[in-house]
Write a structure and sequence with these properties.
The chain is an all-alpha fold. It has helices at about 5-15, 20-25, 30-70, 75-85, 85-90, 95-110. It is built from six helices and no strands.
Amino acid sequence: LANPQVIEEVVRMRNGTLTLEKVLEEVGLTKKWKTEGIAEGKAEGIAEGEARGEAAGREEKALEIARNLIQKGWSIEEIAETINLGIDKIKPLYHPQREKTLKTRRKTGSEHLK
């Protein structure tokens, strides 16, 4: 919109009665930059929120799969390796019933158990 050198010259010609900020405001640049900054900030916030939501959704799906594999008698290590989920995330999913299931499956020779 405005050449910075022209703006500086206008400020000088006014003997300091006009500031650079005032000139930018008068030509509409301040409002334009503020509006663009707000829009950019909103877009970045939306993108970040979407990324966080997607990551949370992927983790929830992995936990659901882990629960299903636990019910099938898989070990923590097997689950962690198979679905690429940390052992620290899988351990809380185990219940006392798990040991009973493991013993029963070992007797039947389940191939997924160690």
